[in-house]
Specification:
This protein is 59% helix and 8% strand. The protein is of the alpha/beta class. The protein has a five-stranded parallel beta sheet with strand order 2-1-3-4-5, sandwiched between helices. The termini are far apart. 30% of the residues are buried.
Length: 264
């Protein structure tokens, strides 16, 4: 469900030709998402000034689904967004913010306690030796990966990071054994992460895992594991605490690697 809409967003972000039928349909869907579940394929085609066949081809191209399945995915996505704040959420916004800072502080202390000096040294050694450093992650972890790619590029490393799943898998396939992959995933068990790490292991690419799940698939496949706190802000589905802790691990690696450069 979320992958499809992420694909549409990534397509629009990377598109330089806004006159194509694919761009028109993607733009209309994302702008009018709430209306999609009740529309027929003829209505959507008419709204985009295209034919129903063009809409059908669009659905198959982006996710190999039918228009009916597109409407179902739109409904699920709308429901998810509607339920973003659960019924047990905190009674007042101010109290919610105070609780957030308390739990965030607690989680950061836990992440600091989980830092393993040997694992950090091993990670820095892999980063130092890497001809190319590739960062991988999906949804909020992808934002952290893209941020990390820029940070380490500024330290002189050849780095890469991509937004959509297909390009990340292509990147994994293109890596060489003297490169290193940094894979960011709080759960470490999503379908894409499982697929990605299998590609990396087949290519014999060293993996540095940033995760909150020491028993997850990512941790099992990794050469070096850096763990975060497992704390979450349960009232919200978005990773308000997890993302900060994963970013802290990236910043820790950045500072450790920077320090190693200063010793040379």
């Amino acid at each position: 469900m979320y992958n499809f809409f992420a694909k549409l967003q990534n397509f629009l972000e990377s598109s330089t030709d806004h006159s194509t039928s694919d761009h028109t349909i993607a733009e209309y869907i994302l702008r009018n998402l709430s209306a999609i579940p009740s529309m027929t394929i003829y209505q959507l085609a008419s709204a985009c000034h295209l034919s129903p066949a063009t809409v059908s081809r669009f659905c198959r191209k982006f996710e190999n689904i039918t228009f009916k399945e597109l409407k179902e995915q739109a409904s699920e996505f709308i429901d998810f967004n509607r339920n973003e704040i659960q019924s047990r959420s905190l009674p007042s916004s101010l109290e919610a913010v105070r609780t957030y800072f308390e739990e965030l502080t607690s989680s950061l202390e836990e992440t600091e306690a989980l830092l393993n000096e040997q694992a950090l040294q091993d990670a820095v050694e892999l980063i130092t030796k890497a001809e190319k450093l590739s960062f991988f992650g999906v949804t909020f972890s992808n934002v952290i990966a893209r941020n990390a790619q820029i940070k380490f590029m500024r330290l002189g490393k050849y780095t890469a990071s991509y937004g959509n799943h297909e390009n990340q898998l292509i990147e994994a396939e293109s890596l060489q054994p003297d490169d290193t992959a940094i894979v960011i995933s709080f759960s470490g068990d999503t379908r894409f992460i499982v697929k990605l790490t299998k590609v990396l292991k087949k290519k014999k690419i060293p993996i540095i895992a940033l995760t909150g799940n020491s028993a997850g698939h990512l941790a099992q496949m990794a050469d070096v594991i850096l763990r975060t706190s497992t704390e979450k802000l349960e009232a919200f589905k978005s990773p308000l605490i997890e993302e900060i802790n994963l970013q802290v691990l990236i910043n820790t690696l950045y500072m450790m690697y920077s320090a190693s450069l200063g010793k040379k």
